[in-house]
Amino acid sequence: MSLEVCTLASGSSGNSIYVGTKGKKILVDAGLSGKQINNKLKEANLRVDDLDAILLTHEHSDHIQGAGVLSRRCNLPIYATKGTWEEASPKLGNIDEKNKIIIKTDAFTIGDCLVKPFSISHDAKEPVGYTISFKDTKVAIATDMGEVTDEVRLEISDSDLVILESNHDLEMLKIGPYPWALKKRIMGTQGHLSNDDAGATVVELAKSSVSRILLAHLSKDNNVPELAFLTIKNMLVDAGIRLDKDIKLDFALQDKVSPLYQIG
């Protein structure tokens, strides 16, 4: 049995990723309504009633919108840092105390899955990314961060699949309609990764033997998939890395459920 991975939605309108094994099924973020998550799981031939846990990366609404509803409906534990709980609790509503799991950056298990949170740089209170491992297979989720720190590199570099943010094209953002304060936030070290930032990280990951990347959290206003792909492809070519042979690039999109990837 391998790790299964499927992005249900990725972007500023909502984020949710399914990762599972035959034994345990985990939702990383629930930034859509409960109904939308249920429908998107059905598209991937999955069932909301089979979920075992929800992991939250941070408290922003596009990551937690449906978490409270799903926890109450399916009696699901929610795992989040203390800072995330402090900020998210008013938005989540009443959660059974036994389902409020406070985590740090220590590894823990959910059934046969080893979960390792790691700190990320974002304008939230104690945000984290995650790696989820099953036997010798590992998936990393590294989105909503303004820079790729040494800690992030260390945690994700030996993964089989990395879901990596490629939020914006820098020039599109600069000339776009956003107010300057928002542009500054997005470009800052606690904002979001640009295509160039993502490309530099993809080159590093390819050299460390990561074989598949899903580019995620693309801005609908400041990016297009074709531009993100071309930017990163050119950086790979310049580094002597063969696309599709040395590393595969796919997209996690806002309005489309991804294929159900079998990893390992």
Summary of the model, kept short:
With 264 residues, the protein is α/β, with parallel strands linked by helices. 31% of the residues lie in helices and 25% in strands. Helix 8 (195-207) packs across helix 9 (225-238).
Question: Could you characterize the architecture of this molecule?
Answer:
The chain is of the alpha/beta class and 264 residues long. Helices cover 31% and strands 25% of the residues. The protein has nine helices and 14 strands. It has helices spanning 34-43, 61-64, 67-74, 82-92, 150-156, 170-175, 180-187, 195-207, 225-238, and strands spanning 3-9, 16-20, 25-28, 53-55, 78-81, 100-103, 108-110, 113-119, 128-134, 137-142, 161-165, 212-216, 248-251, 261-263. Strand 2 (16-20) and strand 3 form a beta hairpin. The protein is globular and about 50 Å long. The relative contact order is 0.15.
Give short descriptive properties of this protein.
264 residues; alpha/beta; 7-stranded mixed sheet; 9 helices
